[in-house]
């Protein structure tokens, strides 16, 4: 039997959660005060995922960079591959919120999208 201690990020409470596992399967979750905590804990110990945020350089815009994020969660183990793929990207203004900046980033099937409007100058 294995126990893992987590701080939940499912809501602002930040509950201290204890997950009990046996043979790689979750057998018990304790310490959460809402259903999101149970879901977060189970996913975090079996298949951790994250939304990745970063910035991309912009040419010809009113700002030099645009904030971006993955449109959906990606496997936690792919974070650095995604950042390596985003780093050299340069886009031309204008950029609109939701524009796909990097499609299928790092082979995840998830797009990187703009989260800010950038006007052309």
Automatic annotation (TrEMBL):
Record InterPro entries: CPE0013-like_sf (IPR036593), DUF1667 (IPR012460), Mopterin_OxRdtase_4Fe-4S_dom (IPR006963)
An example molecular function term from Gene Ontology annotations: metal ion binding
Residue ranges occupied by any 4Fe-4S Mo/W bis-MGD-type domain in the UniProt entry: 1-60
Pfam families registered for this protein in UniProt: DUF1667
Coiled coil: none
Keywords annotated in UniProt: Iron, Iron-sulfur, Metal-binding
Superkingdom, taxonomy of origin: Bacteria
Transmembrane segments: none
Keyword Transferase annotated: no
PANTHER family per record: DUF1667 DOMAIN-CONTAINING PROTEIN, MOLYBDOPTERIN OXIDOREDUCTASE, 4FE-4S CLUSTER-BINDING SUBUNIT
Name the UniProt record assigns to this protein: DUF1667 domain-containing protein
């Amino acid at each position: 039997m294995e126990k893992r201690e987590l701080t939940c990020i499912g809501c602002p409470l930040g509950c201290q959660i204890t997950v009990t596992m046996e043979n790689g399967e979750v057998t018990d979750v304790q310490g959460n005060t809402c259903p999101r905590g149970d879901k977060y804990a189970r996913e975090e110990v079996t298949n951790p995922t994250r939304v990745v945020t970063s910035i991309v350089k912009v040419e010809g815009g009113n700002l030099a960079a645009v904030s971006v994020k993955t449109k959906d969660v990606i496997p936690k183990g792919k974070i650095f591959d995604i950042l390596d793929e985003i780093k050299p990207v340069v886009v031309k203004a204008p950029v609109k919120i939701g524009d796909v900046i990097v499609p299928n980033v790092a082979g995840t099937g998830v797009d990187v999208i703009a989260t800010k409007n950038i006007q052309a100058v």
